[in-house]
Amino acid sequence: MKEIQEKIKNFCKDNDMESPIEHRVLDLMSELGEVSKEVLKMSNYGREPAKYREELKSELGDVLYSLITVANTFDVDLEDALNQVLEKYKKRLMKGSAGSENK
Ligand SMILES: [Mg+2]
Q1: Domains observed in the chain
Q2: 80 CA → ligand 1 middle, Å
């Protein structure tokens, strides 16, 4: 994951695509909205079971890119963050559920 984060950091730098954290987070939320829109399309707005469309992959890629740029702003190691979350969920599961009611 470090390698991917570095790749995105260099890409942003080389292409003059660096911007403040506030814009990064807005972009992330915007891209997540595009994933939601795609899922709505995949299910004909909930009228049918969702059927995969290739566009979802592209939108998920946009979300991942945006998330990485947010993390890179403060050099957050996303692999570390993910491992911390997995540990948190394991502890919650030992209490009965992975939901946030078990903190
Ligand atoms: Mg998008």
Answers
A1: 2-76 (1.10.287.1080)
A2: 26
DSSP at 98 = S
Ligand 1 centre to CA of 29 (Å) is 10
Q: With beta carbons less than 8 A apart as the criterion, state whether 66 and 31 touch.
A: yes
Q: For residue range 28-61, what is the model confidence (pLDDT) as tens digits?
A: 999 999 999 999 999 999 999 999 999 999 999 9
Residue pLDDT, tens place only, 7-24: 999 999 999 999 999 999
CA of 86 to the centre of ligand 1 (A): 27
Ligand 1 centroid to residue 91 C-alpha, Å: 34
Q: DSSP letter at 48?
A: S
Instruction: Calculate the alpha carbon distances from 83 to 11, 33, 86, 96 in Å.
Output: 26, 26, 5, 20
- pTM of the full predicted structure? 0.88
